[in-house]
Structure to design on (92 residues):
């Protein structure tokens, strides 16, 4: 039995609860010996890769209910990526 079938919602066409989502993610992480992962990690990872694909900070700002685009970019780590890249490409 797979991890996802074990924790699927008992009601048809109903989303799973946040607790169920956490259990699924935790069990999957254990199976691949990955520590410190949870639903919040997945939320931020979703935002990061959504931004990488679409470059639309406004839609992510709305999805995450953030007050400004800069908050969203900082939250998903894009600002830090840009800082890191600027250091790597900088020379005197």
């Amino acid at each position: 039995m797979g991890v996802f079938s074990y924790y699927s919602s008992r009601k048809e066409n109903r989303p799973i609860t946040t607790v169920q989502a956490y259990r699924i993610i935790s069990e999957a992480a254990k199976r691949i010996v990955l520590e410190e992962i949870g639903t919040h990690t997945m939320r931020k990872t979703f935002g990061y890769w959504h931004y990488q694909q679409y470059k639309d900070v406004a839609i992510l700002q709305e999805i995450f209910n953030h007050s400004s685009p800069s908050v969203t970019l900082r939250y998903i780590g894009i600002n830090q990526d840009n800082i890191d890249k600027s250091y790597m490409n900088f020379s005197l």
